[in-house]
């Protein structure tokens, strides 16, 4: 199905991706978990699960619950900690040519900086993604991402230590004006913005009268949120990203090529697949195929032409 | 666990049969596409598949049980995990049998599958039961919906260890909840040594309990098990317990395994978003080597665990 | 199915509803549109389509588009204007015993006040619902509902002219902290809060590269948003409504009794049915039945016991 | 319009037949529950029903056309409107025929309906065509998918006015898009007076056009209509035009109606969330008495409008 005439590459700052498809943080493991289902080298990029300074067990179960066309998760940033990650997981990445981004999280700004410093040493990594938008941890997390002053501070501090690594800042949709947050991140050094993280939400078990999730609330992802995500991406593109020349990595509910193209037309330079991989672990590569077919059908020679072309 | 996980894949399967066994229990036979043979030929008892049922029809309104009427309106997004109750895989053909109980929107939709329909599944997933060479006897403990993988295990055990002595303990809420088993109803006298067809064909002696006493021993299956272990005192080195069922039952079985010093493997269930180690939704709290807590993944490290590695809460 | 032993009544301020089921604004017409499908007298309450000072044609078509488990609408507050409404529609309400609330909207605070003044004269009306959260009009609408100072001002001004009518303020979910807005409304005289209105969203037609809706963006409603709505209702209940003794009228994606009970457990005194009525125009009465059965099964003698009982 | 709308209701209907007519066209016969008879016995041509297809299965993957593969994954929330292509309602029994074209996720799911399945529908909805007493001839203009209500109308016209002379103009993109009609393919010569079965059985002379000339006149149906009107100059007082099809075709037909001074009724389509006047999603811009703009509702005030009340854009 490869067609030499269609240029699928897109630029994320100084980095050229072979195509716009990227795995979303927390939905694709650390590196090799998807090996049985696809050739990771076919991906435009890979963003790992959130990494914190110390290992985290994460929340009690149930950690997920299905909703209409969506799911809530409250994994609670379960992860092996940055040290073990650097020792065990970064070497796995050597097997692939794909650019890897590590998503980082923390309870304090110092913690973010400490993790970023460690990861900045790893030659294999293309960049870091700052998760200031996780709704499932008690301290830090979401509170950073909803306050422009904190976004400015944390982005600035982390930027100082990442050296030449690309810095992605991941935005939460749980705000009145996402452009204000986007502007704060861009002003203080974000090379790339990514959006959207999940919506805080709750499912109640009416038989027990308790929330289903052990963490009570969780983050809503999946096709249910896609139309809100498309709107927010287009808003940030028009109000901030386009004029600032900052590329957007965007998603929310993507599960097929049409969904991905919607995000690209709205302004995304690259598209993330999250929940979609749970249902069809090979969907990213199928989407790349689908985008190629769409371009052929529409006489588009380079997918980059589509970015933000919404009429 | 120690079995080597086989490579996983995504396959289409066609329905050979989807037959009701009582009101809410069904037996689904699936023939996988040829490409799957290489993946499933080494699959072991206790492994499972994730089936995509999102595009199946709901039964007509009058066939939806009242308690599921509301939840049936929910659209399905995620795949659903099901153990093999049997698997027959060769170079030519892979057939898997699934025994399922209608509990919610996904299993309700599965009811509408007909011979010739196709479904999409991912498998084989997880790690199954291990079958140590030295054991002379095996005790199977099935609670409620936990029977399917043990039915499969019984068959495999008999095939691999012809001399192994197997005893099964099967518990359910009521007689009607035993429907995974083809019990001849005329045999359903209230005594605790009824032989269930699936186990009987492998010459397995079976003890039944029901919470309400409507068949077999009245009480929990683990009470019945405790009584028997107390009487027979099997040697821990020669015996192994395999259990599958509700978490409370597994926890009680694990306690008996400790008390009687008999090694025990349990098959756990968790809500699973992916089934393949991507999402960490299926965490099982376990002891790590240093005595601390660690979360293992039910879908990848399990669903079968040693009873003594799990932290029961 | 009526069971005399179960008390389905709930209190909305000084008003006692026969049950907690209320039609949501914009999804049930003005008064008699649902007659063929149910006896309006069986409803706990009725909230009309938004009324403005002058008639509004509304937006061009397409005004709706279906999404996964949801829909976007951009009706644009099409309505006959307050004068015609008072002349033609209020008299229709005399046929029913149901309490009617009129949802009001405007471009300026003066406009809101003018509409409220007119409606305050109608004896038949139980109250007004202030729509400060409609995402589909260019001026006014949403901007009021996202700014606590404006919410305070508009609520206060309208409160002055509504006489003894109950004043409901309807909140938008498109904010960082809904409790802050809720508090502003309560502090300045809201008798009841209602939530949630729709989420601003967009669907792009990838063949034409244009938004599907003529208005470009629309409001997302339906089952897709339910888990977010339940979370927000519980948040407002815990942080504002409970201590202030202000009842909540709540919904978002309700289509069956279980959904309605989820909202009541989360803190709603009454539950709104919006998009659900499009699919099953008789769903409100079916839900009342279902709530009764649930109460029977759980030995609950009065549905009011369930309000906010989340463990 | 002037017909009195009948009372609406929600009913279950069982599928008598769901038969393909070419790759993407289907004829669905539904028998409504008895309670519906009183509601449907006065239903008129041009009215419609809203069908709930949200719980139907998708066809298996290989039967989903490539251009619908992505959109087919979308879950269905809202009902879908379909005109009657025929209705047979008595005190005993109501049978409605729907002709549909597979265009997206809902109509794709409808393909899987089988004899004996049930669906839920709301109807009869909207206002149908009016049939003025004094008319001597009627001209039917069907574009693309617009045929179903006109097929019904043809039957009703013939029944109520045995002497009325009916001529039909039928346009489509290509020969294959005429599939709502049981055309004998051997009759498909390239000449503009092919008789289509559904109309032929009522002795209706039919003129066909296709955009690509693969059958009948090459060009738009409205061009063909204009030619004939120019030749025949029918008297406006004695003639009426009924049209259904894409908006651009209706707009051109409305223009011809003005030019030749022949009254014209059009059946419009809109995306509908409710179909019963609750949501205002189906607005049709019309002239009000004072020459201003007013939005009428396609589902309640229409779907049939007089061509000269609509503001064509
Ligand atoms: C490894 C594994 C193997 C399984 N094998 C079988 C099998 O062989 N036969 C069979 O009938 N079922 C089996 N299950 C359970 C089966 O996956 C669920 O019954 C099914 O997902 C229910 O889907 P639903 O939409 O019908 O109901 P839902 O609405 O999803 O669930 C109905 C009820 O069951 C509970 N539930 C659902 N899934 C799980 C789960 N994974 N763990 C604990 N509680 C759950 C829910 O909380 C709810 O109370 C297995 C589960 C796992 C994890
Ligand atoms: C009063 C009325 C009567 C109708 N009668 C018939 C009929 O007899 N037979 C038949 O095949 N179809 C009929 N339709 C159209 C039918 O409702 C749609 O084809 C159907 O809803 C498509 O659903 P879907 O999910 O398959 O495709 P969707 O994905 O919903 O739509 C596929 C394509 O069709 C367009 N479309 C869908 N619905 C409409 C609409 N209502 N107006 C304009 N464009 C639309 C969409 O924009 C999209 O481009 C009627 C519509 C109305 C309003
Ligand atoms: C199970 C799960 C775990 C997630 N974990 C993380 C995480 O660790 N860090 C993060 O930034 N986002 C995390 N996310 C959010 C996703 O990366 C993504 O932003 C979100 O799910 C929306 O995209 P989707 O609808 O395609 O899933 C997680 C999402 C899910 C469903
Ligand atoms: C077609 C449509 C029109 C609406 N019009 C209004 C309106 O005029 N005023 C208002 O306050 N809310 C309006 N709403 C919002 C609903 O009242 C409700 O708050 C929202 O749809 C969420 O509930 P639901 O998911 O049950 O529909 C409208 C919603 C829809 C779908
Ligand atoms: S179910 Fe996703 S990691 Fe186990
Ligand atoms: S479709 Fe809802 S008013 Fe016409």
Concise summary:
The complex is a heterotetramer, with two copies of chain A (311 residues) and two copies of chain B (313 residues). By secondary structure, chain A is α/β, with parallel strands linked by helices. Chain A is 32% helix and 19% strand.
Task: Describe the 3D structure.
- The complex is a heterotetramer, with 2 copies of chain A (311 residues) and 2 copies of chain B (313 residues).
- Helices cover 32% and strands 19% of the residues of chain A.
- Chain A has 311 residues and is an alpha/beta fold.
- In chain A, the strands form 4 sheets. An 8-stranded parallel beta barrel of chain A has the order 3-4-7-8-9-10-15-16, surrounded by 6 helices. In chain A, strands 5-6-14-11 form a 4-stranded antiparallel β-sheet, with no helix packed on it. Chain A has a two-stranded antiparallel sheet with strand order 1-2.
- In chain A, a hairpin with a 4-residue loop joins strand 12 and strand 13 (210-211).
- In chain A, helix 7 (257-266) packs across helix 9.
- The two termini of chain A are 29 Å apart.
- Chain B has 313 residues and is an alpha/beta fold.
- Chain B has 2 domains: 3-125, Beta Barrel (Elongation Factor Tu (Ef-tu), domain 3), CATH 2.40.30; 137-309, 3-Layer(aba) Sandwich (Rossmann fold), CATH 3.40.50.80.
- Chain B is 17% helix and 30% strand.
- Chain B has helices at residues 37-40, 105-110, 147-160, 197-200, 221-232, 247-259; strands spanning 9-20, 25-32, 48-52, 80-83, 86-89, 94-101, 118-125, 137-143, 165-172, 205-210, 217-218, 239-244, 264-267, 283-287, 293-297, 304-306.
- In chain B, strands 4-3-7-1-2-6-5 form a 7-stranded antiparallel β-sheet. Chain B has a 7-stranded mixed β-sheet with strand order 11-10-9-8-12-13-16, with helices on both faces.
- In chain B, strand 12 (239-244), helix 6 and strand 13 form a beta-alpha-beta unit.
- Chain B is globular and about 50 Å long.
- Chain B starts with 8 loop residues before the first strand and ends in a 7-residue tail after the last strand.
- The interface between A and C is large, with 43 and 42 residues.
- The structure holds flavin-adenine dinucleotide (2 copies), flavin mononucleotide (2 copies) and FE2/S2 (inorganic) cluster (FES) (2 copies).
